[in-house]
Structure formats: C-alpha cells, structure tokens
Amino acid sequence: MYASITTPIGKIFQPLLDAVGAVLAFFYSLVPNYPIDVALLTIVIMALLTPLTVKSTKNMAAMQALGPEMKKLQQKYKGAENRAQLNEEMMKLYKEHKVNPASGCLPMLLQMPAFFILYSVIRGMTNTVTTVAYTTTKNGLKVYHPAIVTAEPRYIPTDSKMYHNIVAAHGQLISFGMDFSEKLLSKHSSIFAAIPFLLLVVASVGLQYLQMARLNARNSGAAQANPQAAMLQKYMPLIFGFIYINVAAILNVYFIVSSAIRILTQEILFRRGMVGGPPPPPTVDVTATEKKGPKGPTADRTERALPKP
Prior knowledge:
Blueprint: H1 8-30, H2 34-48, H3 50-65, H4 67-76, H5 83-96, H6 105-124, E1 128-131, E2 134-138, E3 141-145, E4 148-151, H7 161-168, E5 174-175, E6 178-179, H8 191-217, H9 220-225, H10 227-244, H11 249-271, H12 297-305
Helix pairs in contact: 1-2, 1-6, 2-6, 2-11, 3-6, 3-11, 4-5, 8-10, 8-11
C-alpha cells in the first residue's frame, strides 16, 4: 500500500511516484541511511536519463560554440528589414555545422517529468500533517489539547521499514548525527549545529556554478558573443541558492549528486571528443589577395624610378 495524494498532477504521475518510492524504500532496507539512499536513487534515475543528458549536453555545447558566428550575423543583418535574410543565414549556419536548435530543447523537456518525480518522492519523505490545537470541556473543566505533528511520508510503501521508521521518528530523518528533514533556515540548537546545513547549500550552489563554468571554459568566445546569457548563467546558481536554503537538507543531497553527475558527464563527453568545440576560424586565401605597393610620396618615387616599357 502507498500513501496517495489528491492533487491533479499527483494523480497523473501516481504510479511512477509509487514505483520510485518503492525503489527508495528498497535501498533503505539494504542501507538504512537517508542521504545515502537518496544518492543511490538519484544515481539510478540519472543513469536511466544518460542518453538524454548526453544529447542535451551536445546540443548545448554546439549552440554555445556557434555563439560568436551567430553574433556576427546579427551585427551584419540588423533591423527589421533584414530579419528574413538573418533567419536564412542562421539556417545556413545551423545546416553547415549540423546543429538543430529545436532538438536541443527536446531532451530537456523529456527529462523534466523524471526530475519532477524524483524531486517529489524525496520531498514526500518529509511530509507531515498537523492537527490544530483545540479545547474540550470535561467535568466542567477546560482541557487544552496542543497541536500534534504527525509524519505521513508520501509515495513510500506504508508496509516498508523506511515508512515505519520515519513515522516513529515523527518525520525526522536522522543520519550522520543531523536531521535531514530540517532546513538551513530552521531553528537550530546552535550555530555549530547549522554548519552542516550551510555546507550542503554551499555545495549545491557551488556545483551548479562549476557545471556552467566548465562548459563556458570550453568556449570562452561564446561569453563574449552573448554577454547577457553569460551573466544569466553566472548568477543563476545564486538565484537557486535562495531555494536551497529553504528546502529540507535531504533535497540538497539530491541537488548535489545530480549536479556532480552532470559535471562528470560533461567532462567525459569533452575529453573523449564526443562534443566538438567552436567552429574553426575562416581561412584566408593569401594567393587571392591583391598585392599593393607602398602608398603616398614613397609610392610616387618608386613608381618614377621604375623603367618605362
């Protein structure tokens, strides 16, 4: 049996969510450690998505490599009156280098449901239900009943060891001496207790930044050709950092492992030459260049000194 949800999106993906939750519970039965189990699940999902990740990386690198050439065409065909000519030249450029800009979005779109399912299952581990406080009267006396927080993990099989342990721990995910259900912004017992949560957030942001930096380092000319995109890539990890500080630490484990796998995939693709670099600069035919003599008064003197035919 599984803990189900009633949201429309949850109903659509419920079978897949339950299947991934069962895999996570299976890992826990082998290694009862929440961050390790999440890391193993992330590795499995990312491995299944490897063909799409490779295709997406290739398209991203190819488009980035063409950045300087695209910038030149945009500078050459400025204005609305040259829009048709610009599009035609762009298509010629894509065809010449065998790049399909539309195909770059498809692998990313196909990966989105998988990432949504993986993220939802991991987030569902920390799901809790709060019973509001209320007051009753017994024998003429008012009895106060405080609010009760009950753990109800989503997508995890209710008959699994993981489910029972999370419920018994009231939603806490204790591993390595810390509660991975807490956030960096949660109330911690001391500053030192918050340091591991801070390190997880820093690692999440740092690896995402490293991923983009390594890709840009392969083609430094792309950043000069499109400074707006380069600036966006530079600050995007910091924008996501605001999300990382306000999610459970167990989710940061997912962000860290997934980013590390993407970086490793990129390095393998580039090192093995599976992803090409920027197109070579156009060659200049020296023999076709007209040789001209010196100009100015020197040219006049040289010309006068030449013997007449």
